[in-house]
Amino acid sequence: MKRMIGFVILSLLLGPVSVSGVDAASGEPQAAAATDTPLKVQIVVSRFQGEKKISSIPYTLAVVGGPESEATRMRMGVAVPVTQTVIGEGSTAKSSYSYRSVGTSIDCSARPQTDGVYLVDLAVSDTAVFMPDRGADSASPTSRVPGVPAFRTFTSNFNLLLKDGQVAQHTAATDPVSGEVLRIDVTLTVIK
What is the pTM of this model? Predict the structure, then answer.
């Protein structure tokens, strides 16, 4: 009985309390903070050989735009087998495999600024298998072993100021071995 009286007195002193996003007074779900906005951020990673587009891979992330919102993280990849040959006794060759991860990792967050502008913070990392004897200029100064894959890596951390519907190109970087140009385009959409 004393516990019940203590609970009633505590409830009267504290007033309505929200538990798990539900307003205790009305029983209705509470709305998200007014500064949090649902966003869709599309990142397109494209590769070009001269003017010819070789590939274009889009990634779409749902991001909460707010001053205290956590980053959205996306990891997409595969483990690729890499042959390792060991010469044993009597010049006997034995092959074994190790695995190397290739793919794309993206971290994205957005913070509202003034006039409907968002500061979009992106970290993009892309690792890919590259076969040097396929499609690369043979005059390249780097040494190559035909039929043996190389692994290329691209990493960039950057900030963009974007409004609803705006598209911005962040990066245009040239691969020193293949001459391919990697380009990153970012589109921000406010979900209404």
Answer: 0.70
